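Page 42, continued from yesterday. The earlier attempt failed because a stray header line got pasted into the input along with the sequence. Redoing it now with the clean sequence only.
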Amino acid sequence: MYAHRAIQRIAQQTPRALLFSTSSAQAPQTVEIQKRAFPKFSITASGLSSLIPRSQQLAKALTLGKFTVTQPELTRLASQFLAANEHASMEEWRTQALGVFHGDVREITRAASLFAKLSPNKSLSYALYKVAAEEGHANAAYHYAVLLGTGEMRMEGGRGVGGQIIKDLAKIGHPPGLMLLAETRLARNDAAGAYAMLEQAAKGGVAAAAFQLGKLMRDGRVGEPDQARGWFEEAARLGSPEGLFMAGTVLAGEEKFGEALDYFERAAALGNVEAQYNVGLYYLQGTGCEKNPELAVEYWTMAAAERFPVAMLNLAKLLMEGKEVARDRRRARRLLEAAVEASDKDGFIKDQALALMERMGKGSDSRCNVM
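This time it went through. Structure tokens are written below.
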């Protein structure tokens, strides 16, 4: 049975950079997809303007992406899409789309991705993925299957169709397809069944697969725990912030703090808030580096901006105490209020923040211990 709930969870929770990051050296793949009727798309009254990006934005994207199709051609195709959707003549539009792109399914897929990223209404993007998928383009088939699996295409029986496409992609060794099928196995607590697919996907350049293998090995669910670091490092090599963070965590556990800091800094630069917090702590304490409280404040400020409660709490403590950095009671109070709001209802961080706010009210905030 197609685990559409797992697909929806993955689509919503897995960072796109992890899920879709694959090696640029990966050879093009094709897959046979049965052609099916287009669904009736729901398009707002704004019509054409909701389907394609603003003129300047589209022109820039086409130039940067080195598209051969022109902006007027895409605008005309979008207008034809509106008319075809209204008059139930989508099969004719399929032929028009293939003609505009001269049958180049790679460029159709790239255009679909562009519209998915830049357009308010995703209907045209979905339709283009469908055209390219049914012409055999494996990456388009993957995106099309995800849309079917999450129910976004509103096609009758779409989830079952999407599941079969993912299975077909996995059979030909398509890395993201393998990753997604492995995730459905993991959703059923079948780590052993997911293992080989994750390994193949990771070797195909999917960062999320390498990261997942590291987690499974670290937790003793597959393989050997001492192999976890290697997979985290592979995920890091493929650009995964989470992989960088976990590789740093393993090194920190081995007391290789200087090496750990390097991984944490790289993860922090990619927006991982836990890494930002750790880097701040290392610089505050001089762990694996020279002590630098000002730099610690910079990193904790980044994490606090992402509403990471422990960063907000400890940054507030530094600002209240005024020993390592300049004292700033007003900013400290704002951070504590934000920490209370961002913490669990009865969480430890919330209790700590409330206690510190009470101390501030009594004027006894000169000594605060950073966690």
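Notes: Confidence is low (pLDDT under 50) at residues 1-26.
Reminder to self: strip header lines before submitting.
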